[in-house]
TrEMBL record:
Signal peptide (UniProt feature, chain positions): none
A Gene Ontology cellular-component term: cytoplasm
Keyword Signal appears in the UniProt entry: no
Protein name: HpcH/HpaI aldolase/citrate lyase domain-containing protein
Domain HpcH/HpaI aldolase/citrate lyase per the UniProt entry, residue ranges: 44-235
InterPro entries in UniProt: Aldolase/citrate-lyase_domain, HpcH-HpaI_aldolase, Pyrv/PenolPyrv_kinase-like_dom, Pyrv_kinase-like_dom_sf
Species, as recorded: Aspergillus thermomutatus (Neosartorya pseudofischeri)
Entry keywords, A to Z: Lyase, Metal-binding
UniProt keyword Hydrolase present: no
Gene3D superfamilies, per the entry: Phosphoenolpyruvate-binding domains
GO molecular function list: aldehyde-lyase activity; metal ion binding
Amino acid sequence: MEDYCATSLFQPSNLAKALEDTMDPSSGRSTHLLGTIVSIPHTISARTLAVLGYDFVMVDAQHTPIEAENLVRLIQTVSLSSKGRTVPICRVPSAHSHLLTHALDAGAGGIIFPHIDTPEQAADDVSKCRYAYSNGDRSLAPAALVPGVTDVAPPGSSHERVADENIAVIIQIESPLALDNADAIAAVPGVNALMLGAGDLRVAMRCPPRRVGDPEDPKILDAIDRLVKVSKRHQKPLAVVTCKVSGTTNTWLKDFQLLMVTSDYFSVVKGHKEDLARMKETLAEVQGLKN
């Protein structure tokens, strides 16, 4: 991902181009971008995940209690710790959350907008991420970048135009209405990718609760098939969280380009449970040998 870096690590990497390249076999680039999620909002977690070789780290400001200053720290920790090799993405509560402004000003390379049901909502999301140069209404921060130091840009451009070109807008599809409107949402100028919100979509469709490893509900598999067709029609990449995907129904993953492999929380739970079970087994073996 360092090939997609802006001139300064305080500016967003060109995630929009990286996503576009996943859909173009002739680009010679990877067809999949692999990432993880910060849901434990501490710089130790962000700093650790940033150096593990992921293409991106998603900071979840929707389901994690994050205030603005910490959000800025987390995003910049990912960029600076990885030296641009890992792109920070932020999922915000909505286009009208104050956290969106801070995520953009901190240099997030992508913004995920949850619970978007219509193309009109998607267009509003795009507008909030673009300056007036690109027909948006993003406000210009007076102190996010240092003049002549971190606001540098290629000749003939500016840091505002770099941001407009680089920041990827990712729309989360997680309701039957959004699924019905997926074609129209994907066609909105400035929408760079769609994300399957399988958990909320499952609930919205009244599917039975599902544990990790359980077979996926046929309704969700049908929804996935519909999204894949939309993706191919519009040449828009698809994103998904993969850590809860069933091993028996995961062949569709090949058609998703932005894969969130795990999260710090999920890995902590999994690792602690496995380590505890392993130690109990070891102690049982030792006790058995003594007896």
